[in-house]
Specification:
It is built from 18 helices and 95 strands. The chain has 1941 residues and is mainly beta. The strands form 31 sheets. Strands 26-27-28-38-37-34-35-36-30-31-32 form an eleven-stranded mixed beta barrel. The radius of gyration is 45 Å and the shape is flat.
Length: 1941
């Protein structure tokens, strides 16, 4: 028999003996390698085999697959694989079918291993598969017909080159074998000894976090289709759960052989999920330290096994043992006898298995098991210990010397599909496994169905506030409504949380190590708003100062309980209370390192989280008295299964007296590991979340030695930036007024609701604790005592009872089970206790029995037995250190007072030695008087619960000021007189502690006599109900609410005051506040007894006054707002004054200003009570002044407005001044300015009353000055206008200043600025009278500045021009500002704008000298802005370039303006111009925040502009696309400019370019309003550029990282090196883009491609003539870049061996293909030449151009051989056209309602056209008759990117392949009978149909793929030798086919 036949194991070698075998060797694997006929997979990091076609399809789950693919990363799939980044770092399930023997990131590059695969029918292989299946599944009727063998030999893990010095020597070898017949399939995984050396791989995108992902082993069905067009996750099965379980793969197995695993993986009729084999096997390894090895379990489907003959060893069958030798019996490895003890606990598989948080809580992890085992017997329980020496041989404590081997069991993870999941519900099915179920006598291990951990057995692991749910692979805990957590630990929603723990470790400060020994840490978190306060006490001083920057210690609690924004969850919901956080902090610049380990230990008895912290490492020294400040920051957490990670860099400032202010930083790396429940695969955690820490406060208090951290935390999804504060719901901003023990529930808009937390009661703004114990609301059962907690309660079993399996019910402790009595005594268990009675004939107390009653005087008592057993229980008979030894009196009874010698605690006991409750005292305190008889213990009274529940100290130990503590008498009842210690108020209470109405007295007054009997009680009044219903203190005891004050009769006192705020007000009889009576603290209160006067309606003045907004929405006062003054009757006071400007004036009764009464600040006011003189008519000056608007529509003053000044007679004062600018000038009687009289605020004013001298001619300076328009026609100053200053002689003053920007500079006598003299605002000016220093060469900034034209040809300033600012050395100032728009931004040394630094004039400027923060990804606006070329290669600004403006968040500002043209327009959030909003230069811009008016029909220009603004899914514009510019009416602007190239040209009214008007970037555009000389035109786009643009468009606007886009040089030629996207898959090309053979490379280093490497360009190119295909009836023609290929069909199979090039077309991009079967001609569209061509398929035939005009992007093409017509789509102008086959008779069929037409076909038999339109917003497939009539939509739903289109003549259906949905579908022309032919294509482009097969070109495989219509399977593929995208495809036949199209 062949080597490799496997043996059954775990059978009877001899009676009672388990056989143990060794792991398989490499020679035991199935044969593999080239000699076995294997194919070899190409080397690489992410390779996939060619399709492995199966002779017969295989069932995987319940689906048939006819081909397989083998991949580098340890998997086999039934369909072509996506890029590895889509699956290699993710767990199951995958979205494609997978068989995974070892799914990890494997790399075979550089010869690191080989991967072999084959499909075989070899009998020896099939026989061996059959034997293994029959052994693992004895009931299976299986005879394999085929097998697929895949072997990974010595393969290595992927390693980043930058992370290692060289490749690792760790390699793995493993094998997968798929055996199948016509109905079933089985899979074997083989792991030889020494074959697995790495068990996890590092994710490629791990963000520098040290984490490795364990390999995944198992199966996944992939996505399955339901409801025709919908998909969902299919079932999957995981055989491993963590790295340890991967390590066990070769050590255990489920076939009886370690390292061999068998699974049933598919069935023809019904198959739900994978079924593993069920025979255990383990290595021949002696047990070490009690640890065994893990075996696997079975599933219920194969749970019951009978004996079968294959399990018995047979001497004739010994040949089979050669492959799997096993040793003989081991005398040290013996099984227990039949009567032996089988109760030994399950142990871990390896002594060095990693620990987990579960171990910290007392559980040990079982390898390959997802939940800990539960041991119901507490190890520490102990009774009086009998003398072991007196046990008989039959004693129960006697043990065999050798322990039997431990057999831990594995529970594998099985995940069913969750298509229709039921709601979670408590409870479940009991499934368990016990070693008693293993029959060692039969040789067969028997398993029951109880092999799974379920709620029935493990519910006690869930929180008392959780329920348990069963799943296919185990159970999970879920918190009940009103609680949150991970199910194992649940806390009440909304309640504050406390944390306590210890801090230990060694911290070296500078060079001094400091020990930290168990100091206390306390934290308090207000969950409702995310505030976390942490205090560490008793911190030694040097460490205290140095640890101040270590806010990350407290950040853990902020992350656990952060305020949750939508679609996020805080850490506690993921980790619960058990976790481990490991963090490393590296300080800069000193490189000190500190390790932080924080371990969550669970919740204590008070529901407080316990966290221990260990610090070790170095920290920088900080001087005593330092202050540390840290700015708010954001941190991103990455979430993986069972671990969360983050990495960040923080900056902090240290201010000290010694060194002043210093800046430092540190880097934080952290991992938080926890235990998650994977059985419920619905529970998903986002991959990333961002925590925002808004306020960080740190402080060390030297006097108290306390270190404090305070942080406010919010958590939200990454990329979701919080809205403006006034738009955020108060629940999310933390600005709500809910109680700290309440939840804030967001409502619509700004509304919210406060709801008291679970365990609290109140209105949400005032909540108090519910005493569940006192109110009978507890869940405690019999024999349990209720303990009230703040916000909750706890149940505690009484003495003699313990919690049962459910963790909730108290059950009696069976003390007798531990045999506490003497061997000659009988133990009698009772409820809560037990008794020991000596057997008849024996005497004693039951703990000691003897035959003679007086043999030893008296028998030893229970106390003496107890004492003696403990005194001799240690090593060598000595007592254990620290053990408690009971004390007995002379009679042997327990002394009533017992004390612990080590701890000093003392307590009283009863006669049985049991502690009496409440008698324990601490060391140093007086012990309890134990001889005093016990009074029956009564439960706490309501008063005592009330008193003890008040928190009188803070978490840090400070007394809580203002807390009211109830006073109780000796019996626990409320004292009748209660007083508040802080406020001094006293009152009487009833027996329930309720205040008796009318008894409250203020501080200093005589309290009531509360013992005087009450008068007959009257019903409570409304005031008393109001008063008594208010909670006056918080749960912590703080005073909170306003308490109503009632008089003796219970009525509201007319004057009410708030005790905390000091406000007072009057109320009516119902307690409602009377308007206008509220007074502030310290002000005399209103006389509330004075009757209200009837309220009059508001006057006009009061309405005016109250309607003025004096504060901004943020609460700041609005400067400049005028508020009218009203008298007591509400009328305008006659004299009104402006509080900001100081002007005063008189008004009439309507508040209108009386003419001539206004006085400036400081001038005496007018007497407004004097009657007006008869009004004279207004003069011209007065009319001018009154016509100037000084206030806006909202009443705010308009700053900068010039108001003329008139004298008392209404004439212009001779001197006029502009209040804002300070300029003054003389005017004539008409108010016209006199030349030469204008002065600035710094120069002497002209005497305007002096007679004019004879006028001299104006100087150049005066012409310049007077030619500047400083005011608009309406009289407003024009901001940004520079007016030169001239001296008295009209010459330029040497120093010139810009009135708006504040810049100053020196000028020469011509007014030209002198280089280097410009100073910014506020800086000292240059001395312009000092001669110039020798001029240095101009810097780049100065050249830039000087090149900017600031004045037009006529000398007027050019408005809106940006002039760069340079410093004194000529370098760019770090902050640049645009004087006209007010925008400012930061620049680098080259003057390039820094992303995110631009601010408007309304926002705070960025500090450009501060180091950059980590850069966030650029937004669409920033990409757009930074992609615009604003300067030429020489550094000059490019005139005409439009640069979009972005806000601080990188979003488009709603109003955009063109800096050169002055045009402004509104845009939407994608930066698209909103129609009708464009305004010309000088015109007032549109209000972009006002909603759009009804839209008018779009003009031709607007339609073309919208079409050109095609964007990709992320919103980036297509690079290189020209977007037409339209005016406000939608007409073409005469001057058009290309935003990317900078070219400009003139157009006519139809948008057509006028010849000779195009100018390149950096030159002056043509004046399009007058004729000019004709300039040479722009060079046409090259082949490379057109090809690139075409591919980008077909990728949807942006290519993927692995997709090919041609790389072009600046002159348009092909770059010598071409690559697939960002990959290292590169090759060399010649000048025509043709690949140079032999240059392909997969290495990181790209090939050295130079133009000289390519074939010489002097060689003549081949003639573009036809080489006919081989003589065949049917040939597929396909377009591939610059050629048309021919692929013959052999029947329906692709005959790749005879494929050849039909036609080479250099410089072309062939896209659409069509064939004319009558004339045997091929037609094609050429995207590069923009032509439509044809050629005869005959030797030597040459191409013929049919159409070469008015084509932009011709793509799809169809030929109607019957009507001799051709049809095509043009995807740029979005048109469908037709013409005769010779190009004549061209006409447009459709040019509307098309967005991106792609494919087109014609059905000649019916005369119907069909085409696709992959408009991303509304894709569709349409049809019409060939003459353009009867247009209609065929399909518009359930499609994405319908690329390919064809016609199935056999079914008369239209079929398409969709690159978006990945489906191939067909539908009848009327839209009915739609069906999916294939559900998962890759990236189809074009398709044809022939004889029940679809043939399509695929952009992922770069080949032709064949799909069988009937089987829906991919049957064949053809991959050309030269890999590049294939476009169109057509069928060429020797005769026309029926129904051809």
């Amino acid at each position: 028999m062949e080597r490799g036949a496997m043996l059954a194991v775990c059978v009877l070698c001899w009676s009672g003996m388990v056989c143990v075998v060794t792991a398989i060797q490499r020679t035991d694997m199935f044969p593999y390698g080239s000699l076995s006929g294997d194919q070899i997979l190409a080397e690489g990091d992410d390779e996939t085999s060619r399709v492995l076609s199966l002779p017969r399809p295989v069932y995987f789950y319940d689906s048939l697959f006819s081909q397989l693919y083998v991949a580098t990363n340890g998997i086999i799939s039934g369909q072509d694989l996506p890029m590895e980044k889509q699956y290699v770092d993710d767990g199951f399930p995958t979205d494609f079918p997978v068989v995974a023997p070892f799914l990890a990131d494997i790399d075979t590059s550089g010869g690191r291993g080989q991967i072999y695969y084959r499909v075989t029918e070899t009998p020896s292989v099939l026989n061996r598969v059959a034997q293994e299946v029959h052994r693992g599944f004895p009931d299976a009727k299986f005879t394999p017909t085929h097998a697929v063998v895949a072997t990974w030999e010595n393969v290595a893990a992927y390693e980043e080159p930058t992370r290692t010095n060289g490749p690792s020597n760790k390699v793995n070898t493993f094998q997968a074998v798929i055996g199948y017949d016509e109905t079933d399939s089985y899979v074997l995984f083989l792991y030889p000894e020494g074959g697995l050396n790495f068990f996890a791989t590092r994710p490629k995108e791990s963000y520098n976090v040290e984490i490795e992902l364990p390999a995944r082993v198992g199966f996944s069905r992939g996505e399955v289709t339901y409801l025709i067009f919908s998909r969902t996750e299919g079932p999957y099965y995981s055989a491993t759960s963590d790295e340890q379980s991967v390590k066990n793969l070769y050590q255990v197995g489920n076939t009886g052989i370690p390292g061999v695993w068998l699974f049933h993986t598919g069935n023809r009729y019904s198959f739900d999920n994978i079924v593993p084999a069920s025979i255990g096997g383990q290595l021949n390894t002696p047990p070490t330290g009690g640890h065994g090895l893990s075996l696997d379990t079975t599933t219920p489907e194969y749970s019951d096994f009978e004996e079968y003959e294959d399990n018995n060893f047979d001497g004739d069958n010994q040949e089979e043992e050669d492959d799997y030798p096993h040793p003989g019996g081991d005398p040290d490895f013996q099984p227990a006898t039949a009567g032996g003890d089988h109760s030994a606990p399950v142990q871990p598989a390896s002594p060095d298995a990693p620990s987990s948080p579960a171990e910290d809580s007392g559980h040990r992890d079982v390898p390959l098991t997802s939940e800990p085992r539960y041991n119901p017997e507490p190890a520490e329980r102990q009774y009086s210990n009998p003398n072991p020496s007196e046990r008989g041989p039959e004693g129960r404590d006697e043990r065999t010397q050798e322990q039997q081997p431990q057999l831990p069991l594995e529970v594998v993870d099985v995940y069913p599909p969750h298509r229709n999941e039921p709601n979670l519900s408590p409870g479940g099915h009991v499934v368990s496994v016990d070693e008693d179920d293993i029959d060692f006598d039969t040789g067969v291990i028997q398993y029951t169905t109880e092999n799974k951990e379920t709620c029935a057995r493990f519910q006690q692991h869930c929180s008392q506030n959780a329920f348990c749910s069963d799943y296919a692979t185990g159970y999970c805990c879920h918190c009940r409504p009103g609680f949150y957590g991970n199910g194992r630990h649940c806390l009440p929603d909304g309640a504050p949380q406390r944390v306590s723990g210890k801090v230990t470790g060694t911290v070296t400060v500078g060079s001094t190590p400091v020990e930290i020994n168990n100091i206390d840490l306390h934290a308090y978190i207000v969950v409702g708003d995310g505030r976390a306060y942490t205090a560490i006490s008793e911190v030694p001083e040097p460490v205290g100062w140095a640890l101040m920057p270590l806010a990350p210690i407290g950040e853990l609690f902020g992350w656990l309980f952060a305020l949750e924004l939508p679609k996020s969850q805080a850490g506690f919901k993921i980790t619960g209370a058990e976790f481990t956080r490991r963090a490393e902090v590296i300080f800069y610049p000193g490189n000190q390192r500190l390790s932080i380990i924080q371990t969550g230990r669970g919740l204590d008895d008070h529901n407080h989280l316990t966290v221990d912290t260990v610090l070790s490492g170095d920290v920088p020294f900080l001087p005593p008295g330092s202050e540390v400040t840290m700015d708010p920051f954001k941190e991103t957490y990455q979430y993986y299964p069972s671990v969360a990670t983050s990495t960040s860099v923080r900056e902090f400032s240290v201010v000290s007296a010694e060194k002043g202010s210093e800046s430092f930083s540190f880097q934080l790396k952290q991992n938080i590991t926890y235990r998650d429940c994977r059985h419920d695969n619905r529970a998903t955690v986002p991959e990333t979340l961002q925590i925002t820490m808004e306020r960080v406060f740190v402080m060390y208090v030297k006097e108290e030695r306390i270190l404090r951290y305070a942080i406010t935390n919010k958590i939200n999804p990454v990329g979701v930036e919080p809205a403006a504060p006034d738009q955020v719901n108060p629940c999310y901003s933390g600005s709500h007024d809910c109680d700290t023990t309440a939840q804030c529930l967001p409502q619509e808009g700004q509304a919210f609701q406060c709801q008291c937390a679970t365990g609290y009661r109140g209105d949400g703004r005032n909540c108090y604790d519910i005493d569940e114990c006192a109110e009978g609301l507890s869940s405690c059962g019999a024999h349990a005592q209720c303990m009230n907690l703040v916000g909750s309660h706890r149940c505690q079993c009484q003495s003699g009872y313990e919690f049962g399996f459910d963790g909730r019910t108290c059950v009696d402790i069976d003390e007798c089970s531990s045999s506490p009595c003497h061997v000659g005594a009988r133990c009698i268990n009772g409820l809560g206790s037990f008794q020991c009675q000596c057997q008849p004939g024996l005497y004693g107390d039951g703990f000691q029995c003897s035959q003679e009653e007086a043999e030893t005087g008296r028998p030893r008592s229970q106390c003496e037995h107890h004492r003696d057993s403990l005194q001799s229980g240690g090593e060598a008979g000595r007592p254990s250190v620290g053990a408690f030894i009971p004390q007995c009196d002379s009679d042997g009874r327990y002394r009533t007072l017992q004390c612990h010698g080590s701890t000093g605690h003392c307590w009283c006991v009863d006669s049985r030695g049991q502690e009496r409750t409440g008698t324990r005292t601490l060391p140093g305190t007086a012990p309890y008087e134990c001889d005093r008889p016990d009074e029956p213990e009564r439960p706490k009274t309501h008063c005592q619960h009330h008193r003890d529940g008040v928190q009188t100290t803070s978490p840090e130990g400070y007394p809580v000021v203002g807390a009211y503590v109830a006073q109780c008498d000796d019996n626990g009842q409320y004292i009748s007189l209660q007083c508040h210690g802080s406020t001094g108020h006293c009152w009487c209470v009833d027996n329930r502690g309720q205040e008796r109405a009318g008894t409250r007295t203020s501080p200093g007054t005589q309290p009531r006599d509360c013992d005087r009997p009450d008068e007959p009680e009257r019903p409570k009044t409304h005031c008393e109900h109001h008063r008594d219903g208010v909670q006056t203190t918080s749960p912590e005891g703080y005073p909170v609410a306003y308490v109503a004050q009632c008089d003796a009769s219970g009525q509201y006192i007319s004057l009410q005051c708030h005790g905390s705020t000091g406000h007072c007000w009057c109320v009516d009889s119902r307690g409602q506040e009377r308007a206008g009576t509220r007074t502030s603290p310290g002000a005399p209160p209103t006389d509330c007894d004075k009757p209200d006067e009837p309220e009059r309606p508001k006057t006009h003045c009061e309405h005016h006054r109250d309607g003025v907004q004096t504060t901004s929405p943020e609460g700041y006062p609005i400067v400049g707002a005028y508020v009218p003054q009203c008298d007591a009757t509400g009328q305008y006071t006659p004299s009104q004054c402006h509080g900001s400007s100081g002007h005063c004036w008189c008004v009439d009764e309507r508040g209108q200003e009386r003419t001539g009464t206004r006085t400036p600040p400081g001038a005496p006011r007018k007497d407004c009570d004097r009657p007006d003189e008869p009004e004279r008519p207004k003069t011209y000056c007065e009319q001018h002044k009154d016509s100037v608007p000084t206030h806006g529509p909202e009443g705010y003053p308009l700053l900068g407005v010039y108001v003329p000044q008139c004298d008392s007679t209404g004439q212009y004062t001779s001197q006029q001044c502009h209040v804002s600018t300070g300029y003054c000038w003389c005017v004539d009687s008409r108010g016209q300015e006199k030349d030469g009289s204008r002065t600035s605020h710094e120069t002497q004013r002209v005497d305007c009353d002096r007679p004019d001298e004879p006028e001299r001619p104006k100087t150049h300076c005066e012409h310049h000055r007077d030619g500047v328009q400083t005011t608009s026609p309406e009289g407003y100053p024009i901001v940004g206008a520079y007016a030169p200053q001239c001296d008295a002689n009209g010459q330029y003053t040497p120093s010139q200043c810009h009135g708006s920007s504040g810049h100053c500079w020196c000028v020469d006598e011509r007014g030209q600025e002198r280089t280097g003299t410009r100073t910014p605002p506020g800086a000292p000016r240059k001395d312009c009278d000092r001669p110039d220093e020798p001029e240095r060469p101009k810097t780049y900034c100065e050249q830039h500045k000087d090149s900017v034209p600031t004045h037009g040809p006529e000398g007027y300033p050019l408005l809106g021009v940006y002039v760069p600012q340079c410093d004194s050395t000529g370098q760019y100032t770090s902050q640049q500002c645009h004087d006209s728009t007010g925008y400012c931004w930061c620049v680098d040394s080259r003057g390039q704008e820094k992303d995110g630094s631009r601010t408007s004039h309304e926002t705070q400027r960025v500090d450009c000298d501060r180091p950059d923060e980590p850069e966030r990804p650029k937004t669409h606006c920033q990409h757009h802005r930074d992609g615009v070329q604003t300067t030429s290669a020489e550094g000059y600004p490019v005139v005409g370039a439009y640069v979009p403006q972005c806000d601080d968040n990188g979003q488009y500002i709603s109003q955009q303006c063109h800096g050169s043209t002055g045009h402004c327009w509104c845009v939407d959030n994608r930066g698209q111009e909103r129609a009708g909003t464009r305004t010309s230069a000088g015109a007032p811009p549109k209000d972009c925040d006002r909603p759009d008016e009804p839209e008018r029909p779009k003009t031709h220009c607007e339609q073309q502009r919208e079409r050109a603004q095609t964007t990709i899914q992320e919103g980036y514009p297509v690079v290189g696309a020209h977007v037409p510019q339209c005016d406000a009416n939608g007409q073409y602007l005469r001057l058009q400019c290309h935003t990317s190239t900078g070219h400009c040209w003139c157009v006519d009214s139809t948008g057509q370019e006028r010849a000779g008007t195009r100018t390149p970037a950096g030159t002056q555009p043509k004046d399009c309003d007058r004729p000019g000389p004709v300039a040479p035109t722009q060079r046409p786009e090259s082949v490379c550029e057109r090809w690139r643009t075409s591919l980008i468009e077909h990728y949807g606007g942006t290519p993927g990282a692995q997709q090919y886009v041609p790389q072009c040089e600046s002159d348009g030629q092909f770059s010598p090196v071409q690559c697939y996207g960002d990959t290292t898959y590169c090759w060399c090309v010649d000048q025509d883009g043709r690949e140079v053979p032999g240059t392909r490379s997969h290495d990181v280093v790209k090939p050295a491609c130079l133009p000289s490497v390519a074939p010489p360009t002097v060689r003549p190119l081949p003639r573009p003539d036809v080489t006919p295909p081989p003589n065949t009836d049917i040939t597929l023609l396909y377009a591939q870049g610059q050629k048309i290929g021919a692929l013959p069909l052999n029947g329906t199979r692709l005959d790749g061996a005879r494929s050849k090039t039909l036609l080479t077309l250099h410089g072309s991009i062939v896209v659409g293909l069509a064939y004319d079967c009558k004339d045997n001609q091929v037609y094609w569209t050429d995207l590069s030449a923009r032509t439509i061509n044809r050629a005869s398929i005959a030797a030597g035939a040459e191409p013929e151009i049919l159409i070469n005009a008015n084509l932009v992007s011709p793509e799809g093409l169809a030929v109607d051989e019957k009507r001799r017509l051709m049809f095509w789509v043009d995807s740029n102008p979005d048109m469908i056209e037709s013409a005769n086959l010779d190009g004549s008779g061209r006409r447009t069929l459709f040019d509307s309602d098309l967005v991106n037409p792609r494919a087109i076909i014609v059905v000649s038999s019916t005369g119907t056209l069909y085409w696709t339109d992959w408009n991303r917003e509304a894709p569709k497939i349409e049809c019409a008759s060939v003459d353009g009539q009867n247009r209609k939509v065929v399909v518009s739903d359930g499609i994405g990117l319908p690329n390919a289109l064809t016609y199935d003549s056999s079914s008369s259906q239209v079929c398409w392949a969709d690159a978006g949905t990945k489906r191939l579908e067909c539908v009848s022309p009327d839209g009915s009978n739609r069906r999916v032919v294939h559900p998962s294509l890759n990236y189809p482009f074009s398709m044809v149909y022939y004889r029940n097969h679809f043939y399509y070109t695929d952009w992922r495989r770069d080949g032709v793929i064949a799909v069988n219509k009937d089987s829906s399977q991919i049957t064949d593929e053809f991959l050309p030798d030269q890999r590049s995208h294939l476009y169109g495809i057509a069928i060429a036949t020797t005769q026309c086919l029926s129904g051809s199209h």
